[in-house]
Amino acid sequence: MDFRHRLIQIRKLSAKNLPKVVARRLLSSGRAARERLLYTPAGPRRTPPTRAVHVVGLLHGDVASPSFGERFTGAYPEDARRLVAAANDGRDLVLNLLGSGPINLKTFQHPAKRGLVPWHIDVKSGTAWPADQFFSDIQWGQRGADVKVPWELSRCAHFVTMGQAYALTGDESYARAFSEQLEDWIRHNPPKFGVNWACAMDVALRACNWLLAWEFFERSTSISAF
């Protein structure tokens, strides 16, 4: 929202509501200023103590049973087949993002691509957003570009699909892919920087998907505990 539009919005406010709106804006600006002091593209200035991620208990205990995969596949063979096929695509980073059709993100070519996955790019239009810019400073809405594409990718819903396939098959390649992609996201999306911190709903969905996926993989011998 540009300055001129803000002035137009302020003129529409009543005298009663104007002080409340100004107070909220000042409070929001104060929080943003504090965040700018505490966070840098290299990471937080004050690093919080590291804590291990514990299992929350989101899954039914039967999922950990050695016979679970065989029993599920026997009862629902077509569902198991589709799930494993989708997990293979997630493992190989062949994803369909908001109607893009299958795109191999490992081989996606773009000058702004960093690391394994193009986390900051609308792969449908090729538009990229800066990874080292404070999230509230990033502008989107360019004609032909859709910021929801990198947001959708960074929700990491395919992590859960890989976890489900791991529960069925015990295939450690899913665990390794989960670890590799998760570390790539963390490395290239420092806290508060980049477009993937701009929408609180997507931040929450990403956290939920990470936690749920971890419950499937926490017994894996292929990855280290977080």
Helix content: 40-55%
Total beta strands? 6
- Strands across the major sheet, in which order? 1-2
The portion of residues forming beta strands comes to 5-15%
Structural class: mainly alpha
Q: Can you write the helix and strand succession as a string?
A: HHEEHHEEEEHHHH
The DSSP helix count reads: 8
Look at the structure and give the mean pLDDT.
87
Q: Main sheet?
A: 2 strands, antiparallel
Rg of Cα set:
21 Å
Low-confidence stretches: none
The separation of the N and C termini measures 39 Å
Tertiary shape: globular
Would you write up a description of this structure?
Strand 5 and strand 6 form a beta hairpin. This protein is mainly alpha-helical and 226 residues long. The mean pLDDT is 87. Strands 1-2 form a two-stranded antiparallel ribbon. Strands 3-4 form a two-stranded antiparallel ribbon. A two-stranded antiparallel sheet has the order 5-6. The protein is globular and about 70 Å long.
Features:
globular; 226 residues; two-stranded antiparallel ribbon; 6 strands; mainly alpha
Task: Walk me through the topology.
Elements: H1 3-11, H2 18-38, E1 39-40, E2 43-44, H3 68-75, H4 77-91, E3 94-96, E4 102-104, E5 121-122, E6 127-128, H5 148-154, H6 157-169, H7 172-188, H8 200-217
Antiparallel strand pairs: 1-2, 3-4, 5-6
Helix pairs in contact: 3-4, 4-6, 4-7, 6-7, 6-8
Question: Could you give a short description of this structure?
Answer:
By secondary structure, this protein is mainly alpha-helical. The chain contains eight helices and six strands. The mean pLDDT is 87.
